[in-house]
Each structure stands twice: as C-alpha cells, then as structure tokens.
Amino acid sequence: MTQRIAFQGEPGAYSHEACHTARPELEALPCSTFEEVIGAVRDGHADLAMLPVENTTYGRVADIHRLLPESGLHIVGESFVRVRICLLANPGTRIEDINAVRAHLVLLPQSAAFLKQHGIKGIPAADSAGAAAKLARLKTPGEGVLASALAGEIYGLDVLARDIEDHGHNTTRFVIMAREPDYAPRGELGMMTSFVFEVRNIPAALYKAMGGFATNGVNMTKLESYMVDGSFTATRFWADIDGHPGDPAVKRALDELGYFTSHLEIMGVYPADRVR
C-alpha cells in the first residue's frame, strides 16, 4: 500500500517541496488547511503530516502552536526548506515580456528589488502554486508567477529567473508528525525533544522551571509563549531542547520542570536535521 504524507497547499507549494525533500519515497497529499492535514493523518488517509512551524523572516506560523498540541499527533522529524523564489512563465515567454506577476502576499516584498529592476507589477494571490496552475491553464499573456521551481516542473512553466529573493536567509522549519510517537534514538546529529507546558501560578515559576535545564547543561534552542483559551493569565510555553528524554541530564531537567508546571506534554522526540 502506498504511503502518503499530507501537506497544506497546492502541488508545488513550498510545503510540497519539504515533503519532496524529506520524504521523497512517499506520495504527497495536498490539503486545503492545516486542520485537513492533521485530519488526514488521524483518519488514516495519510501516514505523516508536514506542517510549517516557523520562518526566519516572518516568525511563528499563525495558529500552528494551538493546533499541534490539540492534534493528537506526535513529531517524528523536522525539515528545513530554503525559500528559493523563481519567476515562472509559460514556455516561449521572455523576462522582457512580463509586466505583472502573481504570488502569495509574503513572496512579493521578498522579491521587491528584482521586480522594481524589471518594471514588473506584483499582484497578490491566495497561493503561489495555485497561481502557477492558473497561469498554465489560462496562458495569460504578459503575466508570470513567483513560486518554487517544483511548481514550474509540475505545471509545465519555464523558469525565467532563479533565487530572485532580496535576502538569501529566508528558511521555513517544518515538523513531520505521525499518529504514534517514535522515541528510538536515531539520526547522525543527535536528538531533539519538543514539549509544551504551563507553569503553576506561583512567584517566579518560569524562572524556577527553567533552572533545571541550566544546572543540568541542557541546551534549549526554542522557548515561545502563547495564550490559550482566550485568557490573559493561562499562558502556555513551547520549548525545543537538544537531547532525548532518556538522557540523564534531560531526565533530571524534565523532572525538575514537573515541580513547577500544571501541565507538561512531550510533543515529540526526533532526530535533528542537518541544517542545524
């Protein structure tokens, strides 16, 4: 039976590229929303989910930290995708023929210098890969799209220019999620552990909760707070650390964390991506 990995977006989206890069042996299943991605795995229509969590330019992906703890899924891997923007057009089109491009709103400002240099107007679209599919279907003269090279391959568009983003650091981090956790030590670069927690309502609770990681020499690579249930007092934290819960230092740090939290949930244990 064919194994599938679900992603949000149209074929050719950067989430699709993440699937193609991290799990090329799996069939990629496009979904309209993050909720549909999660549902596809929970219902057995897909084996894994590829979900973006943060971007070096735009920060946290909206709503994702709320969705993941409620998903019932577990992180089993991570993948980093450099957002390489291509100018795509129908075959036979030259750059000088292009007077307008369509792309997701976040891609247009990232390519502002290139568009200005060539006198090209940017038009926002709901989805860059979807805009590529529409251009291939309608063959609108004088128009191009900004999207991934993968979108060009899928829809038969020519790549007129590559890597046109103003800055070369724009990278999105994805997590790969499954119905069951996998705590087995694996990977060449060590393990990561992600968890969410809520501190008890006592003075300096967060300071005390974090102390165990410092005293045990556990490196925390991420700590973010966000509100839950529409309350200004119920704050949840998402943390990523280097190491495996079975490591003595990590176990001591998590045990100490438990004294100062009202809720603690391991979201996943997975090998560190080599991009780290």
TrEMBL record:
Pfam hit, one: PDT
PROSITE patterns: ACT, PREPHENATE_DEHYDR_1, PREPHENATE_DEHYDR_3
Keywords: Amino-acid biosynthesis, Aromatic amino acid biosynthesis, Lyase, Phenylalanine biosynthesis
Domain Prephenate dehydratase: 4-179
Enzymatic reactions: prephenate + H(+) = 3-phenylpyruvate + CO2 + H2O
Alphabetized InterPro entries for the sequence: ACT-like_dom_sf (IPR045865), ACT_dom (IPR002912), Preph_deHydtase (IPR001086), Preph_deHydtase_CS (IPR018528)
Species lineage: Bacteria, Pseudomonadati, Pseudomonadota, Alphaproteobacteria, Rhodobacterales
Keyword Lipid metabolism among record annotations: no
Class in the EC hierarchy, top level: lyase
Protein name as it appears in the record: prephenate dehydratase
GO molecular function: prephenate dehydratase activity
GO cellular component, one term: cytoplasm
Superkingdom assignment: Bacteria
Pathway listed: Amino-acid biosynthesis; L-phenylalanine biosynthesis; phenylpyruvate from prephenate: step 1/1
EC number: 4.2.1.51
Domain ACT: 194-271
Organism this protein belongs to: Aquicoccus porphyridii
Single GO biological process annotation from the record: L-phenylalanine biosynthetic process
